[in-house]
Design brief:
Layout (H helix, E strand, L loop, with lengths): L32 E5 L9 H5 L5 E4 L2 E5 L9 H5 L5 E5 L1
């Protein structure tokens, strides 16, 4: 992980740029379930991407491509919001 700055070293009213913030991988402590998708059913509504609290849904441009399990915690929100039931939670 990148060396973290102390609060004293930040400029007054400074902001952390997204490119400068480390993205920690949190998928190692998943709930015991992970999302599985049937891409043939997917209508590319991207509700899963919109609602995912961990930004674990991967896209290619504006097209759904799958899940990054290094960030997914297995919450199941993606499966709950999928209007065509293309996503289901399966055991790890």
């Amino acid at each position: 992980m990148a060396e973290l700055s102390t609060w004293e070293s930040l400029p007054i009213a400074g902001a952390v740029r997204p490119s400068g913030a480390p993205r920690t991988k949190t998928g190692g402590w998943r709930t015991g379930e992970k999302p599985a998708v049937d891409v043939s059913l997917c209508v590319n509504c991207l509700l899963c991407w919109l609602y995912c609290p961990d930004s674990a849904v991967t896209l290619s441009g504006e097209t759904f491509t799958g899940f990054d399990l290094e960030y997914c915690k297995g919450c199941g929100i993606c499966a709950d919001v999928c209007p065509v039931a293309a996503i289901e939670m399966v055991p790890e």
